[in-house]
Design brief:
Radius of gyration: 18 Å
Helix content: 25-40%
Number of strands: 15
Largest sheet: 6 strands, mixed
Number of domains: 2
Oligomer: single chain
Strand order of the largest sheet: 9-8-10-11-12-15
Strand content: 15-25%
Order of helices and strands: EEEHEEEHEHEHEHHHEHEHEEEHHE
Shape: globular
CATH architecture of the largest domain: 3-Layer(aba) Sandwich
Length: 310
């Protein structure tokens, strides 16, 4: 049996553990939150290093991407180096493959993306999703400056976003990570921000915790495309009036794990050196696993909070 563990800077209230079977092999998949305790993350990884099959790096990204360049986050590098024997991944491999594929799946099977107004709360950590929306003709509002750096400027052009990212990311990735992203108890807080752009959007896409932290009290008719959700998250989105939820990772016992967890699962199956794994490797394995986005109709005639495949 393979054992996959996501060690996260996030809230322990979002912990989850499941046993499942994939490609004929049994897996234990679990997420352990440390409530923002960076030292505890390092302790857990060192304790389990060599005893589990793969680590997911939760609540923090190792890399941010823009215009084909990769930028390494200083704080995350320390976490990566704590694992000496067990491979550790942050989910960026799946954000480039699975999430790109999910947007194209939605366009083909659920609704057309062209001319839809899309608010991406953060694009530097979901570059595959951003590029897929752009290629399919969405009207984009990119919120990285507004939600990550508290600069009240929406970006409407992918090219402008990429040009700014080349200037900002080398500086931002040296900052303490909690300045860029909610960790620990701050993940449980909601402070509506830049509501105008939420209100104007047909689709709100990106990291679940970013969306939850800044979303307004009214999400009537909105489509949410995100990753890690709990049953409580689904209930909250429903109560705020959201129409549909699409998660880029499948459901396991009522929970959609983060991309870091699912990438760790794939890495454990492939048993290749992480540096040797290519996007094509992920694509081939995803086809074998037949992962499909989880689709939940929240406020419509058909409501099924357990829906997994359309």
């Amino acid at each position: 049996m393979k054992h996959i563990v996501s060690v996260s800077l996030g809230s322990s209230k979002r912990n989850h553990r499941v046993e499942t079977e994939l490609l004929g092999e049994n897996f234990i998949i679990e997420r352990i939150g440390t409530d923002g305790d960076f030292n505890r993350v390092l302790e857990l990884i060192r304790e389990m290093d060599g005893k589990v099959d793969a680590f997911g790096m939760g609540g923090i990204d190792l890399y941010l991407y823009a215009a084909g360049k990769r930028y390494e986050i200083k704080d995350a590098l320390v976490i990566k180096e704590a694992a000496k024997k067990t491979p550790i991944v942050d989910g960026s491999g799946l954000k480039n493959t699975l999430e790109r594929k999910v947007i194209k799946y939605i366009d083909k099977n659920i609704f057309k993306i062209k001319d839809k107004s899309v608010l991406m709360v953060s694009a530097t950590d979901r570059f595959g999703m951003l590029e897929a929306f752009y290629e399919l003709g969405a009207e984009l509002t990119i919120g990285d400056l507004m939600f990550s750096l508290d600069i009240p400027i929406p970006l409407k052009s992918v090219k402008v976003f990429q040009a700014l990212a080349k200037v900002i990311l080398p500086i931002a990735t040296r900052m303490p990570f909690e300045k860029l992203y909610p960790t620990g108890k701050s993940q449980e807080e909601r402070t509506p921000k830049h509501e105008k752009y939420f209100n104007e959007a047909d689709i709100i896409a990106g990291d679940c915790l970013f969306i939850k932290r800044y979303m307004p009290d009214n999400l009537e008719g909105k489509i949410i495309i995100t990753n890690t959700v709990t049953e409580d998250d689904i209930e909250e989105l429903k109560n705020l009036g959201a129409k549909m939820l699409v998660t880029t990772t499948p459901e396991f016992n009522g929970r959609s794990f983060g991309t870091n967890v699912m990438e760790a699962v794939l890495v454990s199956i492939m048993q290749k050196n992480i540096d040797d794994i290519t996007p094509k490797d992920y694509e081939i394995l995803l086809e074998k696993l037949n992962f499909k986005p989880r689709v939940v109709y929240l406020n419509d005639e058909f409501v099924d909070a357990k829906a997994n495949i359309i």
